[in-house]
Amino acid sequence: QVQLVESGGGLVQAGGSLRLSCAASAPTFSRTFMGWFRRAPGKEREFVATIRWGGYTTYYADSVKGRFTISRDSAKNTVYLQMNSLKPEDTAVYYCAATKAYNNVYSPTSYDYWGQGTQVTVSS
To answer: What span, in angstroms and rounded, lies between the C-alpha atoms of 62 and 48?
Structure first.
């Protein structure tokens, strides 16, 4: 059973930065993309960013483009989300996920594995 473990959440003031990490427990498990989603209170889970595991292709939600950067370290079996210029509307639980799909990688329904989530709170 593959486990994804997130870390790095916390409380930060608007304009600040945080870096989230997600470590996969099984180095050789098959995946095409690893990504980040978030769920704000009272809202649906939404796509944030994803990265091609075997390459460097990245996709971002419009709301985070230019502020967030997704990256990976294959040797550490870890994906990161660097979040800069944080806004109060970025407050949410952030989830790491992995998929074996090649298409529709913006949709949470395409992802097979999920972490437990880490809280990010941005104060104004």
So the answer is: 9
